[in-house]
UniProtKB/TrEMBL annotation, chain A:
PANTHER family: 6-PHOSPHOFRUCTO-2-KINASE/FRUCTOSE-2,6-BISPHOSPHATASE (PTHR10606), 6-PHOSPHOFRUCTO-2-KINASE_FRUCTOSE-2,6-BISPHOSPHATASE YLR345W-RELATED (PTHR10606:SF39). Residues 1-19 have a biased composition (Polar residues). GO terms for cellular component: cytosol. Residues 1-45, 394-415 are annotated as: Disordered. GO terms for biological process: fructose 2,6-bisphosphate metabolic process; fructose metabolic process. Pfam families: 6PF2K, His_Phos_1. InterPro entries: 6Pfruct_kin, 6Phosfructo_kin, His_Pase_superF_clade-1, His_PPase_superfam, P-loop_NTPase. This is LANO_0D09406g1_1. Residues 34-45 have a biased composition (Basic and acidic residues).
UniProtKB/TrEMBL annotation, chain B:
This is fructose-2,6-bisphosphate 2-phosphatase. The lineage of its organism: Eukaryota, Fungi, Dikarya, Ascomycota, Saccharomycotina. Keywords: ATP-binding, Hydrolase, Nucleotide-binding. GO terms for molecular function: 6-phosphofructo-2-kinase activity; ATP binding; fructose-2,6-bisphosphate 2-phosphatase activity. InterPro entries: 6Pfruct_kin (IPR003094), 6Phosfructo_kin (IPR013079), His_Pase_superF_clade-1 (IPR013078), His_PPase_superfam (IPR029033), P-loop_NTPase (IPR027417), PG/BPGM_mutase_AS (IPR001345). It comes from Lachancea nothofagi CBS 11611.
Amino acid sequence: MSGNGSEVNMDLESTTVNAGNHMARTRRRWSSTSKDKRPKLTDMTDGVHEDGELDYISPGQLYSTESGRLFHAGKILIVLVGLPATSKTLLSVAITRYTKWLGVRTSSFHVSEYRRKMMASVDYHNFPNDYFSAKPKTSEGRTKRKEIIDQVLADMLKFFSEDKGQLAVYDALNILVEERLQLDKLFSQMNTKVLFIESVMTDSEMIKHNVDMASRSADYVGWSQEDAVADYMHRLQVNKELYEEMTPKEQLTYVKYTNFGEKLVVNNNRFGYLVNKIVFFLMNLRDKKGCVYFARCGTSDNDKYVDDEMLNQEGNKYSATLTDLILKLVNERRAAQSSPFPPSIEHAAGVGATARSLTPTNSALVNNISSGLSSRSMSPSLSPLLATHASLRRTESTGNASMRQPVSGDGGDEDSFVVWTAPRKRTHDTARFFDEKGINVRQRSQLQQLHPGVVADMTEDEIKQKYPAEFKEWIKDPYHYRFPRSESYHDLAVRMEPLLLEMERMRGDILVIGHESALRVLYGYLMACSCTDIPSLKFTRDELIEISFSPFENRVRRVPINYENSS
Amino acid sequence: MPVYTVSNVQNLRICVVMVGLPARGKSFISQKIVRYLSWLSIKSKCFNVGSYRRQGAPRPSAEFFDASNEEAYKIREQAVTQAVHDMMNWFADEEGVVAILDATNSTRERRKWVLKLCRENSIEPMFLESWCDDKDLILRNIADFKTSSPDYEGVDPDVATADFLERIANYEQVYQTLDAAEDRDLTFVRMMNIAQQVIINKVETYLESRIVFYVMNLHIKPRYIWLSRHGESIYNLEKKIGGDSSLSQRGLQYAEKLPEFVRESAGDRDLTVWTSTLIRTQETAQHLPYKQLQWKALDELDAGVCDGMTYEEIEETFPEDFKARDEDKYEYRYRGGESYRDVVIRLEPIIMELERQENILIITHQAVLRCIYAYFMNVPQEESPWMSIPLHTLIRLEPRAYATHVTKIKANIPAVSTYKGRGTSQVGENEAIANKSLDALANPATSD
């Protein structure tokens, strides 16, 4: 990320005060040399761990500033706090993805990754076992721990001082008051605000899930699951005894995040808008059980931008095939996931979790399983989707004063399935078969395709002929360039931001049926693509895109749609 | 199929139950939430228990609010019962989505009562507590309250302040704050000294989270927002809609005089200018000596296939569309273009940004200005697309705790009228409409 810094700095200075995006566009950042420096991403990888160039403009950025920092927020260090198995890595990656997309220069620093890299030559079995304790007892453990943490700190300091970083996310235990105060002091001296995000988990189901995930991580390749769980539980147990939860007494700025968003406490918020935005994001962030699917809409007769048509015969065939394919994929995955945790975890997790006490609410839940009216759109037996663990456990409580109303239709449940379409008739016509099967279909105006302006329905050759000057500009920067009267991809990203937040909240499966331009932007967020890549992402009618979620990165699968041969 | 502003509105009904001592900005927050959600077409209404109580006790003194005053307690009890009763009817009869119960709701017993009633009617309560021990903030709220509340009409200001402080003291005796442990099963938000400390508990829908985020971004620092349409454009002269034309001679004149108008109104205040991406707004802003930002979201409503036509041509070419638009101008979406509703949805990030910013001057277009103006002035959807907002006029908004104050500064540079009334293809205002538009601008809409 360093190198030819002086040239870049001059570049930045020339785009100061009035820097709207139109100004940002005039910069030379798309010169072929800067493009070459970036490793070419294949379209299957998640770019959240890639560092951008110094003058990198991210997809959702509203304006750029001289210092490269947004929202007048200054430099911020986010420090994750919490025991193992409290989703710290997931949180830090999710925050990084979101703030990067907003145009904040963000990088996450995972101690576990550093350890794996720095100790790659050391066999895990020979690794000092108490390294994983916040307070190692052996001197060997202490040395190793200090060595790794010092390296992380040095890199974070460098990120702020040399690489124009605005937000660093530090993913480590940080469970001791002393450690936290030291961090706060060290970075405050460097004129960097420190925000702690403490993840607390008391829900034993969540802990079991996290232990299950950890026992399959890179640390335990070649281990039996039983041994892996036992080892990981040991790490957890050791630290549990040392853990000092955050309190207002420390006088630090922190967000206490309990059970993945069930409760948030923002303490001593002095940092303003960027922190509010992160809190809003955290309010909506959920651990996803389902996948996000992207599909194009079916064809209509003219397929012109201004025409608003229903599908033609081929388009109908496509939608019918799409409907069957997705239901099959979702049901297959749900069937595979329905197996409960292995016994080793069921036993082990009792140690880690303070088992959730049965509050009156919970016992009422048990007794009232079948009482109350169902407010859902249909009874489970009629649904084309397999019932899951969650659907079986759920209770309907409409009208019952002692519990919350069920949230329905918005995808908040892990077994939900929602289809989003754009306002164009051909896109919601593509969802018709889902609608007929009783699945929630929502028309979202934010999904409206990129407005092509004067070049609507023109081929590249036609554009080149009619608008040669504009065409030249567009080739230079297809993400930010606007043809006369048109929207740029950047405009599209700004108007779609509320949808991203809503999508983060949805725990079940989502199918987005939209125009290629809208899909590019959503995909660009979920896979952390760069501005150079987004305008050329490909979505065809032959392939369904499936994105699945894991704490460290998101994954893509492309599934063929064979509708031409279907009857 | 309906268009969703947020997807989970279906089947979801929320009652935001305000909690807090008097003078904690509860009514300010309540009114803002209603304004924001109504503007997003989410049906919402505020039920202010104080105004119900005033029917039984128009100008009570502080003793009235003493918890041991049994007779007064009865009147207060009646007021809250009536308010909640009306609220339930509103949910049932008018398909309400978000109601705000604006009252102190200061005891756990009262809150439990509201909770039970709500849940029995399939309404999910979200408690929103504004807690404050910042003396300056409280005194500022009191100052606002005693000048605007009917409770103290015609009362000496010092007497009013003393009485109000005593009233607060009476409430303090029985007040129980929301507690992270005891109220853990409730959906609640507790804001301490505006948003310095916030507890957010069990927020389970996107709509709730949006309300919380919105409230966290509100501030009550004094500031102004100026609105202006671009100067008269060549298309305006030709009576064409849309397009991306330059300014006319008179439009350029307006652009030249604009810095002077703004300075007269803003003094030495620093401000930021927001324009759309279209040529006519940028030409209008070209002489302004302030920082400028362009927003695509501020571009004019897209007329799709009708872009560049006159209203007469539209009536001739698309007679059915022309009629349909006049019948429901808010919902009508031009072929291949936008409706007013679509414009509101794309303006939402602008509104959130405006709430947290200080002094801003926005130079944009007729339809977009109508939408922004409608948000600050609480103009209903049926009316907002028909508001007259003349060219060459600078509008200054001053958001205050209980209402937004409007000042209109007319530049004495003539311009055509682009106003088109219902049922005609002719532009231009007759006198009656012109007067109406003046009235609309002069009377700040309050939310009662």
